[in-house]
Amino acid sequence: MSRLHDMGGRFGDGPIPIPRKKNNEIDNHEPTFKYDWHAKAWAITLAAGALGEWNLDISRHYRECLPPKDYMNYSYYEKWLAALTNLLVDKNLVSLEELKKVIDLVEKKGLNFDANKSEKLDKRTWLAKDVQKTLGWGGPSIREINVSPIYKINEKVVAVKYSPNEDVNGGHTRLPSYVMGREGIIYSYNGSHVFPDKNAHAKGENPLPLYTVEFKASELWGVSAEDNNDSIYLDLWEPYLRSKKT
User: Fold this and answer.
1) Rounded Cα distance, 147 and 144, in Å
2) Does pTM top 0.90 for this prediction?
């Protein structure tokens, strides 16, 4: 299995080491959170998202917009925290001066002090007792719209060869670069879902048909494919695709 860079799905970082048992079953004992601060980073990001100042696609785009050097060197949750910090500052929810003040306090007093014990909670604050209930609601992206899908099951398609974001040069898209220009087959139609290419730039949800497309490993990886009979299934929006006949 090849390693895919998660910013745009770039290919070429070498194989992913997958531990296996003697019967070739995957031996996965990875904890949900490797370090305690990973769980805190996840919780803080969700809690901040509950403020309603941005959507999921905007938060993803902010991670993509980190300086390349930082993006390549930060761990997964370091990216989350860096992007969240930029969002909080850009949305005027936290100032750089406030951040510097907290950092100074942490350096002087350690991580276990309560910097906000005298602060009045914002009415949007996500309380611990509400977390499980709120997460249970989820955030479905499917929308009911009067649009018929262009493509049919088993139809041959080709992913576009360029970033399909028509509004923003270098803007957010969920089309991985490793699949651009590759041929696949429509495996299923999944209804109309929020279109991230627009939603990430606050241009509205613009729901569009979403398909699951099957690609052969040999089509994507060529001689690097472990097994030419393997298939990769990707959920792709309609603007990402063209009919194989055209």
Assistant:
1) 9
2) no
